[in-house]
From TrEMBL:
Species for this entry: Desulfosarcina widdelii
Matches recorded under PANTHER family: IRON-SULFUR-BINDING OXIDOREDUCTASE FADF-RELATED, IRON-SULFUR-BINDING OXIDOREDUCTASE FADF-RELATED-RELATED
The name this protein goes by in its record: 4Fe-4S ferredoxin-type domain-containing protein
One GO cellular component term noted in the UniProt record for this chain: plasma membrane
Chain ranges of the 4Fe-4S ferredoxin-type domain: 55-80
Presence of the UniProt keyword Transport in the record: no
Short name of any one Pfam family annotated for the protein: Fer4_8
PROSITE patterns per UniProt: 4FE4S_FER_1, 4FE4S_FER_2
GO molecular function: 4 iron, 4 sulfur cluster binding; metal ion binding; oxidoreductase activity
Keywords: 4Fe-4S, Iron, Iron-sulfur, Metal-binding, Oxidoreductase
Length: 100
């Protein structure tokens, strides 16, 4: 069972970028991402929006596949800065592993 945290997007602010809620999941970032793996980074941003921290942790290894090339950020029509959101998720995962 997945536990959802409605305040997760606000909690992410301490790790950096807080623009995940600006994303309307248009898919532009996923379309240009060289990874093209299951709609990355769109999927990760959606997990933030719905508060699915458990899903992010289940797929945390995908975060380190990000080349941080900036293509997703350059093409985002809402200026949600997907690349920086992914970097923030990496910080959250590292923090979680440190605490464990």
């Amino acid at each position: 069972m997945i536990t959802l945290s409605p305040d997760f997007a606000q909690e992410m602010q301490k790790y950096g970028e807080d623009t995940a809620l600006a994303c309307f999941n248009c898919g532009t970032c996923a379309a240009i991402c060289p990874l093209l793996h299951e709609h990355f980074p769109r999927k990760m941003i959606r997990y933030i929006q719905i508060g699915a921290r458990d899903r992010i942790m289940e797929h945390a290894d995908e975060l380190w596949k990000c080349l941080h090339c900036g293509l997703c950020t350059q093409t985002c029509p809402r200026e949600a800065n997907p690349g920086e959101i992914i970097l923030s998720l990496k910080r959250m995962v590292v923090d979680h592993w440190r605490e464990s």
